[in-house]
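Much of our argument rests on the idea that a fold can be written as discrete symbols. Part of our work consisted of pairing the sequence of a single chain with a tokenised description of its backbone. The amino acid sequence and the backbone structure tokens for this protein are reproduced below.
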Amino acid sequence: ERERERERESGAMVFARGGPAKAARGRGPPCSTPRVFAWSSPANHHHHRPPAMLATTREAKRLQRASSMMASSSSVSNCNHARAPSRSRSTAWRTCASSSSAEPFASDPQKKANLLQAFWKFTRPHTIRGTILGSVALTSRVLFEHSNAIRWVLLPRAMAGVVALLCANAFIVGINQIYDVKIDEVNKPYLPIAAGEMSQSTAWVLITTLGLLGLTIVHTLFGQHIALLYTLSLVIGAVYSVPPLRLKQRPLPAMACIVLCRGFLLNYGVNDAACAALGVPFVWKFPVAFITGFVTCFAVIISAAKDLPDVEGDKKENVKTFATWLGTGKVAMASIALLMLNYAAAIYLGFTQPSQFNSALMVGGHLVLAGCLISQATRLHMTGYSQQGIKNFYRFIWNLFYAEYALYPFI
């Protein structure tokens, strides 16, 4: 009986240390294998072991299962297959393989999203909004005046014209970013090239593709006259930024480039193209002359105000602008005064030319815009012409620019 009790105690130790397999390899104390497995059989499970040994055996099995689960979990997370059991090893291999194969597919949408966001910033969205709103407003006014000549078959041609304008816009602002990297690292570090989100080689591919696409559309669909105006705008945009001319380094030539492209060529070119598409002759009517003159003066203001937030980088790169020459406060106040004169002229025309304009909208709309400008100028002065106040003022000027085009078809 004593010998049988000793054998039972040694069997419990075998289970506590890892089961009969270790005993078979000689790592546990010697025991009789039939008797060990007899203890594990369901029929004899409760009849041949004392309660204390039963509790010991259950605790050993629980510890063994917990140890096995921890080893399996560790092998899956770290791909440490050498220490895992065979079943856990295969599971770990499958887990690691599936995660590594799924990683490119998980990162591809993120890369595409980052690339699209960089491209969107590269095109300078505030200029895109101005181009789209201006072309739509100018075309809408021509359609209102010649509604009997509208043919829906011309809609694809009109959409192609908008695409060509956007291509020219992206070409001009894109080539400026390529040659302004050092300035943008100080003034506009969020732009894609300055931020390292887009390489210069990628930017060159983009602007070359967009420039060629716009030229192809215009030469194919809009005739030689419009194609010449379009090509002239691309050339002006290039000499504005590209050495050795790089006209943006001198205030007056830089202003002339912006006024010519944003003021005259866009308004005259879109009106002429819309009339040509409808088969009606282009005539310098009072509303067309008004919007061309108004936006040309507005372009003068934009060309001066655009440098207000960039004084630090322009001084560092020795770029002479009105803001670096006269100071941000004086340039801001001069821009406000010139824009107020623009609104005063529009209100005067609304009163004196009721046959040419919708007087109520012409006068009332520009009074509201002038009041908004005075309010923004007051806020700018209260900030002491701080950097943030200057940035808010410049964004507000663009909002006034959009508002003028939104008002134009109805005045």
About this structure: The CA atoms of residues 38 and 71 lie 29 Å apart. Residues 14-56, 71-106 have pLDDT under 50 and may be disordered. The longest helix spans residues 86-122. The chain is about 75% helix and 0% strand.
